[in-house]
Amino acid sequence: MSHSDTPPGLNPTSLHLPDLALRTLGGSVVAASDESFAEKESLIRPRRPGFQAETFGNKGQVYDGWETRRRREPGHDWAVVRLGVPGVIRAVVIDTAWFKGNYPPYASVEAAAVDGHPSPDDLPAAPWTEIVPKAGLEGDAEHHFQVADETRYTHVRLNIHPDGGVARLRVHGEARPDLSVYDGLGLDLAALANGGLVTACSNDFYSVPNNVIAPGLARHQAEGWETARRRDEGNDWLVIRLAGRGVVKLAEIDTTNLLFNAPGAVALTGIDGEREVELLPRSRLQPDTPHRFRLRHPGPVTHVRVDIYPDGGLARVRLHGHLS
Known about the structure:
This protein is mainly beta. It folds into 2 domains: 12-175, Galactose-binding domain-like (Jelly Rolls); 180-323, Sandwich (Jelly Rolls). The protein is 0% helix and 43% strand. It contains no helices and 21 strands. The protein has strands at 28-32, 56-57, 60-61, 66-67, 77-95, 106-112, 129-136, 142-146, 152-161, 165-166, 168-175, 187-188, 197-201, 225-226, 236-254, 265-272, 275-284, 290-294, 301-309, 313-314, 316-323. The strands form 5 sheets. Strands 12, 13, 15, 16, 17, 18, 19 and 21 form an 8-stranded antiparallel sheet that branches. Strands 1, 5, 6, 7, 8, 9 and 11 form a 7-stranded antiparallel sheet that branches. Strand 2 and strand 3 (60-61) form a beta hairpin. The protein is globular, with a radius of gyration of 21 Å. The termini are far apart.
């Protein structure tokens, strides 16, 4: 199933939500029953799976994915992923790209909520809930599954029946981190890892807007947000839902890696219900430069609209402040 295909009954917006398991968000494959042919860590790599035919190592053909040995005993294989950001899971994608004669015929997914920092030995005793019932898989295909569960989860377990290879596991959802650790402290209210989310965007032709609130620094322009070239009198924009209602005091607008396609200017507007307030008037930007602006408005807001003029790209947006 290709990226453009949306299965019946699947809300297509679910697949635009962040992948909470992604390695670049801090996800980790903490345990697996077996990884004889290909390593479990591949399941949560950010890029699309690759493949080069007739590339053999000591374990056979090299695959960009997780592959277990052929089982000769009852049971099934599994891998446990700690989500990079805990949250409510809306959709799961099981991708068997390039696994054509060695994919598992069936798979299921369970989820658990475990406080603290559990070890792999602690996790089997956790209360696991099935969020994707056992379903048939095809080789070299993406399989999309809607999840109807409002529980906040920290871990997922991919079960493959009985064995085989899976290239990627995507766990799309809404971040629900524990923000109590920031009591009395400031934080980045826009950060995806803190529960921020881009809820609207004028254009995402080149890259997804949630990149601008991802952890770390963008290594190249594809890891930011970039729009198509505008041919009208308007401007591009996005709206960020903050981690919680709060007061934004410092904005970081980073155009790093955007050498010839940075916006000429930016403006920030705070939104609190029906009320809109100017946080940052239209201000000039430079290419390939981190910019920091102290903001004027002291009142709390729930969303911030970022207007860029007229188009272009941003590497990162950070909105530092306090929860109200």
